[in-house]
Amino acid sequence: MEGKKYYITTPIYYPSGNWHIGHCYTTVICDALARFHKMSGEEVFFLTGTDEHGQKVEKEALKRGITPHAFIDPLVARLKDMWRLLDVGYDRFIRTTDEDHVRCVQKIYQKLYESGDVYKSEYEGYYCTPCESFWTESQLVGGKCPDCGREVTLQREESYFFRLSKYAPALLEHYKKDPEFLQPKSRVNEMVNNFLKAGLNDFSVSRTTVKWGVPLPFDEKHTAYVWIDALLNYITALGYGSEDDSLFRKFWPADLHMVGKEIVRFHSIIWPAMLMALGIPLPKQIYGHGWLLIGGEKLSKSKENARPELTDPYELVKRYGTDAVRYYLLREIPFGSDGEYTTERFLLRVNADLANDLGNLVSRTSAMIVQYFGGVLPARGEAEGPDGELASLAEGAFSKVKRAMDGLNAPEALEAIFGVVARANKYIDETTPWLLAKDPAKRERLGAVLYNLAEVCRIAAILLKPFLTKAPALILRSFSCDENEGFESLAFGGLKEGAKVVKLPPIFPRLDLKKELAETERLAKETSNEAKPASAEDEKAPIGIEDFGKVELKIGEVIACERVAKSEKLLHETVKIGSETRSVVSGIAKFYTPEEMVGKKVVLVTNLKPVKLCGVLSEGMILCAEDGEGNLSLLSPERAVESGAKVR
Ligand code: MSP
Hints:
43% helix
């Protein structure tokens, strides 16, 4: 009889090169799940990869005067490097430029074209190139992309459409029948109420304006829309529609597509509808996880809050190690929700759990066995006092971990494991081995206590293997255990009396919070200096009029103003600039009340890239003078001028 199979996928990543700790979140969770299922004896296929086609790559390559491949290849190598640093053990890394994928995408389009589910029509919409997404006029915010706040362009083109509308009733039915299909529940409400119930429009699935894509076999001036090309990776990676589709037959339907919440719509509506059109069973579950936030906003390069010195995974792994970064990601963010990322929280979490609790337990235990028993494991002896409670907690941990992991909840699984670690540390305080060691009559008891502690270290190490990839092997080896020991050896009492024990150096050195935070600040300054094209000398040097001319300054009239919720510094103004009205956020709440602001004529920089501050869109910067104490005073035109007037 065939054993249990587990097919898990991450989204395939855009080859941006600007990866931050938020990007690692999806894939590290998947890796922990894949490891857990492998250790549970299941046959696992874990897929990740890169989403390489589309206008963004085409443009970037063109800008550099190189081919798209020459542009992407080093980025893909860098992404793989990131996964290597984080010990992400995927079974296939698919690239949408892989030949087998391209061939399969073409076959699928052909099939859908022949069945009538893909047909030719015309498309018009506002396209955001960085997000590779089309928007309708009503979806735009202030004329800009609602996701990233950047410019969009109106594009009209002949296009092939997918008959998405036809599948809305079947999708609704599926949601009703299978409450596990999309998780967490909150995302179901969003998809069903906001999209499905309103009915679905057919969906444009080809472009004539994008050359860097998979050409449609029945009309070569069209390329496949990147999102369709990308979604199909989940089946092309298994050889669907190819001569050898054995992996597809073995692993499909996927057990889990893990995705960030912003791409749930593609995965839970368009993807299942396409599978229905192809007559392929639907994946068992789609999970839309939350985001890592900075200052309440999604950590994102395009929003420029992903300061590399704080959020660069390569740097973090270099400074704190693979296990620390994996542990933070898997433990800190409540699963399904968003979580605020700060360096301080990262350091606190690593110090408290890894350095203090786990690190101390294993180094104290091994050190005492070396000190009192010459590194030879004593006998377990008769249980007394808190021994039974410790042993049963350690043995019972696996079922808690399993329950949590079946619910995809890594933080809860880790909480159960660290509950045992904490109990063992308390056990040391209760049994006071250093006092037992002073009394020769208590030698046997001392041996039993140290045996129990060693056993907890071994069990914790095994349970931690899906989550941490370095420390468990070190711990197991120091107690002369096979580092390949798995869930089958979790019964309490597995360690053999007489086993050699070596003293473990601190596996997670305690981090000095102050020093680390100061170092991060220093790096931050260094990086921002590096980012400046000019040297400090140049900065003082006069600029040319052409430099000044790049800044567009205008007079605006504040027509409404309110405080930004949860911020002491920020005001949110609605500013009229000629015939245009803009949303502007400025840090002047300590110096002006909202009432005072209304009616004021101010000077604004009007050609800055829009940003979001505390979640509010800011499309300009109001200029102020600052005195020696940091007090701000607004600049206003000296005589009456109309809003919209240029400042020069
Ligand atoms: N290429 C698409 C996916 C196509 S799948 C058929 C894409 N790529 S991505 O590179 O932008 O995102 C990759 C993963 O990183 C997504 O799961 C996304 O949600 C995740 N994250 C990016 N920023 C994140 C945070 N700040 N926090 C948590 N995860 C985030 O989307």
